[in-house]
Amino acid sequence: MRLHLSTWQEVEAYLQRSQGLVIPIGSTEQHGPTGLIGTDAICAEAISQGVGEAAQALVAPTINVGMALHHTAFPGTVSLRPSTLMLVIRDYVTSLVRAGFTKFFFINGHGGNVATLKAAFSECYQVLADLNLLNADRVQCHVANWYMCSSVYKLAQELYGNQEGSHATPSEVALTQYVYPDAIKQAPLSPEVPSGEPIYGAIDFRRRYPDGRMGSNPALATPEHGKQFYDLAVKELTSRYLEFLSRE
Amino acid sequence: MRLHLSTWQEVEAYLQRSQGLVIPIGSTEQHGPTGLIGTDAICAEAISQGVGEAAQALVAPTINVGMALHHTAFPGTVSLRPSTLMLVIRDYVTSLVRAGFTKFFFINGHGGNVATLKAAFSECYQVLADLNLLNADRVQCHVANWYMCSSVYKLAQELYGNQEGSHATPSEVALTQYVYPDAIKQAPLSPEVPSGEPIYGAIDFRRRYPDGRMGSNPALATPEHGKQFYDLAVKELTSRYLEFLSRE
Amino acid sequence: MRLHLSTWQEVEAYLQRSQGLVIPIGSTEQHGPTGLIGTDAICAEAISQGVGEAAQALVAPTINVGMALHHTAFPGTVSLRPSTLMLVIRDYVTSLVRAGFTKFFFINGHGGNVATLKAAFSECYQVLADLNLLNADRVQCHVANWYMCSSVYKLAQELYGNQEGSHATPSEVALTQYVYPDAIKQAPLSPEVPSGEPIYGAIDFRRRYPDGRMGSNPALATPEHGKQFYDLAVKELTSRYLEFLSRE
Amino acid sequence: MRLHLSTWQEVEAYLQRSQGLVIPIGSTEQHGPTGLIGTDAICAEAISQGVGEAAQALVAPTINVGMALHHTAFPGTVSLRPSTLMLVIRDYVTSLVRAGFTKFFFINGHGGNVATLKAAFSECYQVLADLNLLNADRVQCHVANWYMCSSVYKLAQELYGNQEGSHATPSEVALTQYVYPDAIKQAPLSPEVPSGEPIYGAIDFRRRYPDGRMGSNPALATPEHGKQFYDLAVKELTSRYLEFLSRE
Amino acid sequence: MRLHLSTWQEVEAYLQRSQGLVIPIGSTEQHGPTGLIGTDAICAEAISQGVGEAAQALVAPTINVGMALHHTAFPGTVSLRPSTLMLVIRDYVTSLVRAGFTKFFFINGHGGNVATLKAAFSECYQVLADLNLLNADRVQCHVANWYMCSSVYKLAQELYGNQEGSHATPSEVALTQYVYPDAIKQAPLSPEVPSGEPIYGAIDFRRRYPDGRMGSNPALATPEHGKQFYDLAVKELTSRYLEFLSRE
Amino acid sequence: MRLHLSTWQEVEAYLQRSQGLVIPIGSTEQHGPTGLIGTDAICAEAISQGVGEAAQALVAPTINVGMALHHTAFPGTVSLRPSTLMLVIRDYVTSLVRAGFTKFFFINGHGGNVATLKAAFSECYQVLADLNLLNADRVQCHVANWYMCSSVYKLAQELYGNQEGSHATPSEVALTQYVYPDAIKQAPLSPEVPSGEPIYGAIDFRRRYPDGRMGSNPALATPEHGKQFYDLAVKELTSRYLEFLSRE
């Protein structure tokens, strides 16, 4: 069930049986010479819809732009500042808690979002208490990073070993190839790619990682791999979502 | 061209020939008993992609959640506060101006966004000047509301007369039926629907408009109408976008 | 009745019979070579006091500085950023709702304020709900632009035709001449004045409109015209205010 | 010279000879049973215009609403929060520094504004430095409280002794009587009025000072006294303004 | 009793007998060639702990960094902006009011903090009312500047006369020498030191006060003096704290 | 070297040889029936000073209050909201970068600070770029959690096994016992203590963890253990700091 394809009366009925919501969150940022700028949003959205179907869960529209300030020295990147993203999360959650939702399961496609999301959750719990909203003290937010699912991680190691890297990885590229087979890109990739460097500001990032990749070889990706990653992530996150729902 | 399906190197190349960007902005809000909660985002996104193809323009990911505070007494609505949406627009625009974009054409599907967008544009111009960004004084933001295209408005009057109303209108519902024919909804609609009431807070809104419609009869919508609206809006907005680009 | 010339006990008594308040809002911005920098505030204040007398309404002190960022490349302009003006409106409204006011009628003299005011109203309704203030869901804010009164508009067309323009107009200059006959200014006005250009940032604005006028010929203004505009605006807005008060 | 009665070209000419500006700041707050709600703004504005004439200084429009949160339990009070007032001051100052002003002389009518103004000044200096504005490091803001002029204080002691009190004082009431002789109010005043209590929140304030006066007997005020206070304040502040201008 | 050396159960017990808290607030800023950067925090902390012992009062951890923007042209200074410090105070106070504290006694070591603290207190009272916290209208904040104790001031005059100055004063330097005898510094001090200049921005401050001192001769300080100042301040502030607690 | 015990001229000299700074950050929060409220600040401060001595590094004053919103249902806890803490970090870093510091090594004692710190770092890099500060693109912030040092973790496992838990742990309690042997607390500890529960809002936290401990048995702590932890942490973090400094 997608929130955007539902009516308010359907949502009202849904809330009778569940107070859970899946919220995909991605990013709009460079993913190396062959990775799509929407990679993180595309992956999060596809997997969220899979989880939504498997778990009979409502799925919110995707948060397409996240915290990607360190990628902004590459054209095409769009980023919220952490402080802005925190306000966005606050507004989503308060809108939805007013309606009766209490369990927010963010399926995340971008490592750069995690710290801000966690800070936002803390801020939200306080805001909800301050607003004296009904059930404020029962609200739970959880971030699930699909790329850190143990099954996904294991497959990526098997398929790519240390060529998986940590940004513009073949696993995420593969997943976008599965979702958008018409948008598979080709571009020359230098065989040597830096890895393991720390991440600071945007200029510094591009100096360290000139083509945007972090230790990865996305040329290894195939749409078939993408389907495997998709299936594994949907399965593992469906299970985790259901457990989250059932948890007190 | 969709930004999300491009690589940063493709964006770099695009910027050599154009500094324009189409940004769809919608809302996540009740649209009466049969309208989809994502109506405004769905319409803005579909038309934006049509314009993008017709005008060879890059299209940003859709801003799915806008300013819909007055709809938040209906479950399923998600809204940013105006102050939050202004920060979001600011962050989008500053990220993109750094990369070289200067012409931002927002295709908007929701009347409730307009005031906040205009306020945000004013704030942005000042921020860009404060940041001393190159070309700050050449940046232009424009909001184009597809539902106010003269051709669209004319067709809606012909097809629906005063049953078009002003929210959950048959024209926008038709467009979503064209885009998502599998998500056409049926629900009883009271024949009498209030119209012409002013809009204040959320509780007040629901008191005035109990099922969410404002003077509309969305039962008149058909997917075929939707295609007509789509074609008209794409044509008119493509032309307006090209004129916007060429304007000094 | 002017709030500033009342005591708190008089306000307490007033609230027994009315919960309405007229709030004049103007701007402090260039108005061409002969228009006063205070034009928008002067007009809004004078008309508001006229409405206050005619409608037995309390009139707040004038918000003298509004949203005029696009005029800041001309010396003498003072502007709030939209985000600041929104906070100002929020603070006014929350202070006054605590005391029992629920109907806020802003008489506005500056087009550049409108979007921000409307965004501010939306934000206010939510803030009031969040604060759990008594009658929060009955609070209504309305912006009435005196220069858009149909009677005013008609007279301006009759007197000035297309020399009315859209900034530093003879109608608003005339009104200030009526209010401050000792401050009528003379300065050379180039016969050709640009018009119809869009409005973006401050530098861009001055490039497009070098002397500050937008398509207007303020040399046509006379204090006698000013009185006519004043009378028409007071009459029309008094009527609109009373209707606003009586509306549920 | 009043900024509101000037044109931008007159301001441009003024800046050739002076970079100083007088800014009146008052408050909109209860002043006991007989004091006007606008007392602090009225006094600040009248004195500022007197100083403007005497010193050939430009006078900005009055900031009518200040920091009066502790008075908000009395109807008619309107207050900005300190954080909002700081943003207002910031926006005024940055607008004006861009135009070339560097010396800001705030003539203040309300003790409750002082701390916030001083905090705002500190914030402003940093903002100006951050914006790299020309002359940022030469900008000076000064707050001059008319009621603390030594000549004013001395006269108040002579005329009223300890019946001057500290809020809704006969001296400030007298000054408003001089400016608005038609708005002199009569109301019963309890002979006993608390004084010397500390100031915390709004509810607490009203509990301590039930009719709004703080140790004062405004029944002693006369318009003639008002003229005396006016003359003394204008003289003393003109001198202080000129010294401020000449100071490096 | 120091909050940091207590358990939450001890605090719970303390709240049964007292709702008061001593909060030391200092600054991290240059104090001339021989004054410690931590001078203001060191003095506030030492005196607070003395008061805590004498008055059986709980003492919060020290706010080490205050509002010192005007000192930031000297290396080693760290400053919050006034707007940030206000949020810090707000967060402290709301956290503590939720637990039952109502009397906040800030022992302050830095003149630059005073305006911001007072503005923050006003903002806090409103926030507490907005949050509907229990006892919100009984909360009282007080700032006590140790260097303005009459006994301290008197001794400083006796010991140093006009060589006390107003920043990097021998009295505060003496107190830090008493607390940290191992950190007594020697450096050449120019015999002539400017004094009486106003304070604006950071660059301007350093231009006026090149070595950071304002009219002071800290070479007169001794640890023995420091002990005297410490004893006087603790005694006077203990008495003032107890009076504050007992006040309705 | 402690910043608070230095003069500005010493800092100026230090900056000639190093641009690094150690910043201890803790929290003010409940640590179970026997743990000190200041535990996290005490540990971070002590270890930072040890690192400062070993590495000849300057050590900033301790950030005593961090992000502990989830502990605020226990009296004595003081917390900044994440958004406030981010502003504090921003103000620290911008003050210090202006003076020439570029390498910020936060030694952290509280898990709840980590997400907010990381979000704050991202925001800072952008702010520094926006301010066009010299070396903005060379600034690096790093958070080092002493309790996650591998040597510390290993010892905790050896000494306490699964009784280490994750809050109010014997290892951190031991370290405070070593630093403040006079503040060792005794209180009955229920043998059963919940562990492994997720963390959401404050009320929820206390419901899950009634005495504040998370799976820990702090009764196992001794001052001798504390010394061991201290030595290990200082050694490991000194080494990490030096590597951080030397890293490009």
How would you portray this structure in words?
The structure is a homohexamer of 248-residue chains. Chain A has 248 residues and is an alpha/beta fold. Helix content of chain A is 46%, strand content 8%. In chain A, helix 2 (39-55) packs across helix 8, helix 5 (150-160) runs antiparallel to helix 8 (223-246) and helix 6 (170-179) crosses helix 8 (223-246). Chain A has one domain (3-243): Creatininase (Rossmann fold), CATH 3.40.50.10310. The mean pLDDT of chain A is 97. A four-stranded parallel beta sheet of chain A has the order 2-1-3-4, with helices on both faces. The first copy, chain A, has helices at 8-17, 39-55, 82-99, 114-130, 150-160, 170-179, 202-208, 223-246, and strands at residues 20-25, 58-59, 103-108, 140-145. Chain A starts with 7 loop residues before the first helix and ends with a helix. Chain A has eight helices and four strands; from the N terminus they run H-E-H-E-H-E-H-E-H-H-H-H. Chain A is globular and about 55 Å long. Chain A binds chain F through residues 67, 69-70, 81-83, 86, 112, 114-123, 125-126, 128-129, 136-142, 198, 200-204, 207, 247, and chain F through 67, 69-70, 81-83, 86, 112, 114-123, 125-126, 128-129, 136-142, 198, 200-204, 207, 247.
